[in-house]
Amino acid sequence: MVKLKDIVDYLDGELDIKSFEDSSNNGLQVETKKPIKKIGFAVDGCLEVFEKAKEKSCDLVIVHHGISWNDSLKHITNMNYSRLSYLIKNDIGLYGCHLPLDAHSKYGNNITMGKLLGLKKLKKFGDYHGIPIGYGGELEKKLSIDKFAKLVENKLDTIIRIVGHGKDDIKKVAIVSGGGSSSLNEAIRNDYDVLIVGEAPHNKYHESKEGNINLVLAGHYNTEVFGVKALMPVLEKKFKVKTEFIDVPTGF
Length: 252
Description:
The protein is an alpha/beta fold. Helices cover 33% and strands 27% of the residues. It has nine helices and eleven strands. It has a six-stranded mixed β-sheet with strand order 5-6-8-9-10-7. Helix 2 links the parallel strand 2 and strand 3 (60-65). Helix 5 (109-116) crosses helix 9. The N and C termini lie far apart (38 Å).
């Protein structure tokens, strides 16, 4: 039987959660007293995911977006009550890991996307409070913006929107998953041809235009499935547990 503490201690260390300044309270967010036989993995800690975790007999759920952010659990009412009471009633544990799972050099969302796109010379990118959470690299050969768009859609299994204000030929690519458009100016300063993010606010249209850079919006959800999925075989092998990805796409 696998103890929850053993899994939590391993993840805390492997993902180096204490090194990140993050609004997410990363780590174990809801305890379970059961031995861990099966773990569900998902992007979002939400009631629908928790209900599916129960259906699939998961003892623990590991998510990218947990339910504890800064002092968000100060009052246990409304959604907080619904989510917490469901987890506690059904004795399901919850582990959340946000920025550390974007940034990780082996299991992270951004390094995984870079490898899927075949980028070479991958290096850290996307400074956030002194720690880079994204990655940048180069395509083996230049691609037109249209061919690059097809590559992204095929390799990342998503539908994208292009804000095409940069070069027609793409070589240098930067990636910051989710709401990573705050790295746009860094991408401009470092002469990247395109920045891939999940989503971006209205003002990034003009910033990308004035910075002569292409911006690819690949979906917040769809750019953040990779980290939790990458952890699945790792925990299966190390702890001999069953794992399952719980897919609840948001369309964002």
